[in-house]
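Notes to self after the call with IL:
- keep both proteins in one doc
- input above output, always
- annotate only the second one for now

Protein 1:
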Amino acid sequence: MEQSTANTTIEYYHRTKERQQSSRLLQHVSQLRRSLTSRLTTNDTISLNTLSSQVTQSNSVSHKLKFSRAKSSHTTSPMNNGTTDDSLSTVTTGEPAIASSHTTSINITRQSTQHSALLSCIALEMKRRVSLSDRLKNGIEYSNVFDGKEAVDKLKEIIHTTDREAALRVGHALESQRYFHDINYEHGLVDNVLEIYQFNSLMFDDYFDPIHNNNSTVSGTHSNISTDTPTMHHSSPIEMDEDENASSKAPSIGYNQYIPNGVITELTNCYSPTCTGKQACYSHTCPKRERSGNKDNHPTVQHITLERVNTQKIQPLWHDAIDTGLLSTLSKSEKSRQESIFELIYTEENYLQALDYVINMWIIPLQEGDIIPQRKRAHFIDVVFSNWIDIRHISYNLTMKLIERQHDHPVVSRIGDIMAEFAESLQPFIYYSTKQHKGKCTFEREKHINPKFASFVAQTERHASSDKLEFNAFLIKPVTRLTRYNLLLEKICSKTSVTHTDRKTIPFIVSQIKDTLSIVNNEAGKAKNRYDLKQIHKHLTFKNKKDEVNLQLLADNRRIIKQGTFYKSPSLDSTEYQLILFDHYLVLSKVTIIRGVPHHSIRKRPICIQLLRTRLSTVEITQARPIPSNAVFVETPINKRNSMIREQSGSDLSDSTTKGYPMTFYNYGNSLEGHYTIYAASHHTRKSWDVCIQHHQDDCNKMSVFNVTTLALQHHEFPVENEIHHLISFDKGRQYMLAADSGLYLGHRYSSTNDLPLKLLPLTKVQQVYVLEEYKLLLVLADSTLWEYPLDIVLNGKPQENELLQKFGRKVISNIPFVYVGTCLDKTLICAPKPPSINGTEIAMFEPSMPRTEKKKKTFADRFTLRSSLSFTNTQMIPLKSIYNPYEVSAINTTKSLMILTTPLGPIAINMITKIPDTLLDTHDKHLEFITTNIMTDATISLNQTVKKTELFAVSNGNYLMCYDDYAFFIDKKGKRSDLSFLIKWEGQPTAFVYHYPYIIAFQHHFIEIRSIEDGHLVQVIQAQDVQCIQNSLKSNELFIAGKMADPQHPFYQSIFELELNTSERHDKNRHR
């Protein structure tokens, strides 16, 4: 027993000692990684995680420590010659990292170093620097491409050389590993601005990026290398997500096959240990001698052109297969023509072979084998290959006819008749182009989730018959072949005699093919847009429920304008976000790959394109080394940005590893949402986004539904101190009355002399005015007192007699905040709520009345003649029984039989027959919980509840449109929600609503929001300052909608504007009626 206990104690001691030694060793490793000056990537570095795991499990701790130090001696920069470059980090040499599920996470602070000889670093930096754009070549539009000259320019900057040949050799090394390719897969990298290229599809798709997509969910084991980088936050940066901590997961090793790897030997350090500094040493092969331009073994630098590339290919020539006797009888121009015809024939044969290759090496094996599961095999082949057989049949017929014509006589007399017949059969190419993008995405997704298919793809692409081309090279051949037809035919036509029949036939054929290409571009773009929208809609979520917006991505007219990658912080190693510009909203999302499918999680509330504002910083933000504890932050008056100033002497900020170009997006509509700043990888990327947004906003502004016209006013008469409160039109819209702080004014809308409004009454603080033409009555609310005037006397009075006109006024009621005039139970009601008391709010009710003899007058002129009585016996304000409400009333509305009161608890409906109040909305309707629950909660926890603006409009089918200051939705007569698919979430906080079929107009402080009543989508935004509707409670179909705003030319004065429906919109409206 004692011996067993002793053995156990000794074993425990040894285990404890071993753990302590391992812990000390891990501390050494932690110190070691702080001294690393190279940027580690998955392809080119030793995994410190794996090293830590090995050290922990080692029996010989000291041996592992020596191994670690030995390894660290090889992690020095291959180009560390004292020159600082903040654009590209040097990478250590060694074996690729091996992911392990038992690895210990070590935080690596990435330091700045010089450029690297490692191909992976050069590849990633090239992808960051190259500016992608949309370009047109040979009639086909290509997205996200770059030209050969720009590629060589960027590679020159990356490897720090003036030798374009050297940069071109590096580019060929990247291209040989399929990092990028010519758009037609026809030749390699050419230093020419006319040749355009694309990155590998998985490398271009930012959510497939194996370096930066740290949170992608992919199959395989993840390594846990994390980065601690200081973040310089600016205006309202995006908050850290819950799943975004300092240790973010790296992607699986499976994606590293898309990152080129290797060493460019001419960029490495010299072998001589005494070679230091910038100057070359004694060695004739010193790399510094090569980089400095002192080259003895290289020829004079020349730009590689497309012609030089083409001469390297062995191509058949027509004259080699023709008898010399026959050849001598032909003219030089005819020989040239025959060479071009021969090129058309043999390239068509090669094209047919490529089509057959796809059938024999791809379609048939996939059909007959078990590579694709049986349940989706037929669908997969149909989606990916579409009508490939039909296109092959067209090419076969054309090839056979051309060969037959060539066999008839070696000198082909004409080809116009054959090509004319071919031009009539191009419809299958249009259909194929509409399926191409979907087929490519389906192919890549299946390769991602199906290991057997991925193995089949790799094996088939390495087959000799593939000509070392990947599958996508063959997938685009049917479309690119169309462009080649035009080039060949135009070449033949230029060498054909003017009197030849082909000279007349070929231009017509070329025109037909160009028309087909135009249709192909258009239809392919539409199909790609529809597919991408459908995929985003299907896999779209919102991180915060409050940010949810119905984006209506499946609408027929929905488009994706632009999308790209931005970063959360100035460090380009930080979290990536996908920025998508739709035709109606700007969306910021984080993309996660789940089984090969990108899933979008919306991080911020989408910003309406018409309410979007951007700001570009004038100074790019650089991500520097870790900030010392005694660093001081100072805000400069020039750019108002946070700048880091180190107090330590000798500190250097020039050796930054990555740069970010900040771009701030503002939501002009909802100030509560604030704004956010994200960072672009390059200045060109940021600028292109800003230009694209500006152009699209200009296009949106041109498609207006309502026009804005201003009424004539005297600027000195209506400064902001003399606030305009209300406007009412009468006399069939020809005249209007204006209520302002300085009095009551009368104006004419269609006056030929452009008369300015004149003051009628000398009242002050006039808040509201109503004209009851039927009763010849004028109601004026001034300084919380309601007055009534005879309308005929006021209109026929003279401006200099306004003091006299005031004597005809009669005070109706005092101390009221507002007055409402409406119709209920076929009666005109005048409602005047009194200030709330402890018992609630009393609403005084009046009904205007006049003798029947006066009602018989029909014309407007007859009513306002001086023969009318100057007394008030003709019109009477009959008091009605007051209505009491236990809550404060902020607004009143009426329907045919209901009076709607806006209270802190929401709208209350009073039955005007029974006088019984009830809540307007059905509180038991679960579809209204989003509004009823919030109202009840707010009223419970808030003592001074903010009054919510509500408005109710009768619409078709007996339903009502209920407008809150947050939402708008339909309800039925019982207060239940109807049309559950319809819900408007206002972009701001409306202060007034106007219903003008088929639009609902919301007035807000900085803009007017116009939406369709059919589906709620945003139709138009009219922006101005200090906007206010001064024709409130408007429920008519009149074309006169008035508001006020700050005068654009004189901001200290007010301007009255009118919204007029466009002529085309008015015509459509009348037609629908």
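Protein 2 (the one to annotate):
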Amino acid sequence: MSSYAEPELEVPYKSINSTPLHPIKLPTPISPSSRLPPLPPAAARRQDQEASKIIPGYILSTHIIPAALPRTKCQTAPTPTFAFSDTHRKAKIVAAAESLRSARAVGSEVYDNDWPSEPLWVVVNRFTAERLASQTDSIIRNGITMIFMHANGFHKETWEESIKALFLHSILLENTIEEIWLLDAVNHGDSAILNEGKLGAIFNWKDNSRDLLQFMQYFLPDLPGSRLPVHLNSISDEISRKRVEGGFTHRRVVAVGHSLGGCCTCMAALHAPKLFSDVILVDPVILPPYQREAFEAGALPLAATVGRRVNWPTREDALKSLLQSTFFRKWDSKVLRAYVDYAMTEAGPDAGIRLKTSGYQEAATFAEPSLPGEVWELLPTLDDRIELRWIMSGKADDPDDDPAMADRLWQRQTTVWRRKTRVSNVKMKGSGHLIPQTVPNALDLEPILLQDIMSQRATYYEEELDDADDLAEVGLNLAIGNYGQGGLYDDGRLLLVPRIDEATFIAMQQHVAQQVALAQIPDVVKRFIVQFHQAIVNNNLPEITACYENGWNRLTEQFYPKTEWPEAEVIAPLVNDNAVFLILYRELYYRHIYSRLTPNVDDRFHSYENSCELFNYLLNSDGPVALALPDQWLWDIIDEFIYQFQSFSVWRSKPKLKNEDELSMLAAEAETAGGSQLWSCYSVLNVLYSLVQKSRINEYLNGTRQGLSEVELLEVAGEYGSKPLYRMLGYFSLIGLLRVHVLLGDFTLALKVMDNIELNQKAFFTRVTACHVATYYYVGFSYMALRRYNDAIRTFVSILNFIGRMRQYHTRSYQYDQINKTAERMYALFAICNCLSPSKLDEQILNNAKERYSDQISKMSQPFTSTYSAANPTTPITPSSPKEKPSPASEALAAYSELFLFACPKFITANAPPYGDADALAAYIAEPPEEPASRHLSLFLDDIRARAEVPTLRSYLKLYTSLDASKLAGFLEKDEEELVQLMMVMKAASRSISRMNNEGTLLDGQVITTSDLDFVINENMVHVVESVMNRKYGGWFIRNTEHAQRVYDALKASPLPITKGSKEGGTAPEESRAPAEPKARTTGQPWTGTGRRVEFAT
């Protein structure tokens, strides 16, 4: 938002003889004989029925206090009424307006200690933070107390929408603001009901300021959050005097006033500045003296206000009537609804409703002539300790658009810059004077409140730093002087004083460093952390999901794309050192380091410690923990736990790359009692199997398959498994076990742990796309490693089709890149499996694979002899000479190796190098074992070589239906015995175990023929049978139909072609065109089509 610039010139003005506020008489203590009014019925009902529903996290209570005494003396009389049926109505209204103006001018500043004879009352609403009820010591933190003062003609409830918007945009404030108080002026809102018949023709704005001061001096409790009676008890005069002189002990008061309320609030702050920490003025009626005459001459519509409509049959009729007015149509709908609900009251039996504040009293308030100018003149004297913020109207403030507004623009500039220090202003572009009523969501209260919080902390940090610097300069052994006795020496003798030990000093330094680091965190990040913490504490699952999936990633991109998030110890004060939240925060913190940065050895060790803390909390608490997390986060916890284990295992297996510090830390860890448990296979598997056992997820899935009812399933799941948190953690642990066993190379056990999980679109893992994709990837790879290529192809086709259909939705996911990378790897694995076991299961997936890996597929599909061997199958196989043509075998094996190493998981070894034995470690480094990926590739290529000549044999068999064995052996240049062996290899290669109709577990299956070619050998004849597979034309027709539609749309959108001649000179009449002479046809020249060239109009 923009602001008003400081004016270059100051306009001279004639000083006003301002008078100070009249002293406030000590309130009379409440006694049993006191005559105390009850709450208005509507206010009492609202307090009982909606106390905790109005502002989330806060509880409403309504209270009554006496107005300040004495008050400006005036004659009291019943409020006059002006019936529409009265023929002299207009004249009476004008007369009443003039009497108000003259009464205020004549009776200014007249006080009588015995007046009024009957007390006036002020009704206040209090919103107290719910957390204070259970955190009685939190008040010592000096939280914020906000006090709101309304404008003329309004009511205290008009602020509620602005307060809701403030908390909606800043959760940090919700955790810092402890109380909110809203006051009704004596002739407004609920106060006007209690004071009916006792109000006069004068409303002195200074009395309104005195009412605010009396509330703060005598009735605002010392401690926020305490239970209070309807009628607040006053404090002693001595305590009140201490407040005025030194301020509050446990509160930082931020006062907000609009229009009338802004002027009165500022006057109160001028009179008793120690009571205020900050003052926020929302377009206040504070005017330079040179505008006083215009103000008094009729700038305020007294007559129109006196005669305004105040009665309606019902509230709905009132709302419809107000909406017909251009004045009220500009209001926010919720604020207008609050005006109808709370600014009006029942007028009596069968009398409909009326405004609580009569037009006469509203006009009496408008008649104030002096205070706006007095406050303007006194602004430079406002205590420099108070932060002052102006929120001003920005409507029609461009004098170029409206020259008549130049004076108003100048007035705003000179007003907001009247006080030069600790001041700021914001211009609400396009809004008029009624900012809280028209744009409550844009009311800019947040910056000054956050500035107040941060400035207090910064002051504290500066003091801490100064102390720490002083200590650092003089050294650890310098004693702290006895300041009560004047220093280190007394009468020439050295005093013995206590010394700071080194541990205390280091702790102090760490504390100060943490506070400084906290101050450097951007405010938006602090607000997010507090909001995230509050959502977790409240188990607000939608809010947690929004923070986790959107807020965290958005702020990461904005502030921490290449740096660490703040450490948990730094942000701990923001979340009240909540241990559970800090564990979850560290989980995200280390995940960010592993994914965006390079973890160091400390990160690897500490991430394991945090994982242990998290799982110990979940598994070893007394009963299930009361924690709600979204499924996506639960999956990510398991997935990241395994990824960090995998990353550590790979890092640990390369001792040659370690520095001395890393080697010493790993050696120390290896020498611990019982051996190192740091990211060991045993500890990881123990966590996963413990979660499975604790949640009884296998029993739950069995019950689901058997069709048990929900009640029966909960009984089967037990105490832990009946909770969604444990159920989903157990479920995701099964998939985590699948991944771990694949990484360790035990593919049979990997599929075995999935016995109770069905691969279909109704499975739990489909709730989380990343889990869905990972499950199919590891199951598909396990099938491929077990030579069940047909099952692997079916698995990859299923998930790749899913990713293709849902790609447009994945682009909005923060895990889109990871999903996309996994899809590319699965296309590579599909290409390998399809070359080894050709299938026409899905042509679209096959075409996609060919688009990505056409060169590799071509090389893998060509036949080669099995006599080829390579020394190191894991390296790309290249010819020895650039001129030497690569052999089919080298090209095929190189293609298989390339795709396998690209697409396979990052296998790990279960055993760590011998870091605890220097000699053994040196031998290990000298002769390192084979890499796990190399071992798996070697086994895979051995199978490829065994079936190397099968494609050649297959190509010959496809040419015949029957063939003499000797003739076939001649084709292959083999004897008959070698031919029989080769044909048995082909027979074995065309047989595989495969699941039938997805029945049974993932390991179950039947032996099937995977080739479209079969043969039998009868005596010396080979009989060949080839099965014909029906081609699926659905996809072909869809693709070509879409292509035809695109061509048609392009032609339809193109302009009509016109000939060159018509473009240049128009179209000649038919009869006037000269017949074109036929050109001689030439032969022997290629046709170029130039004779049919046309140009399109542009």
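Annotation: The radius of gyration is 42 Å. The chain has a mean pLDDT of 81.
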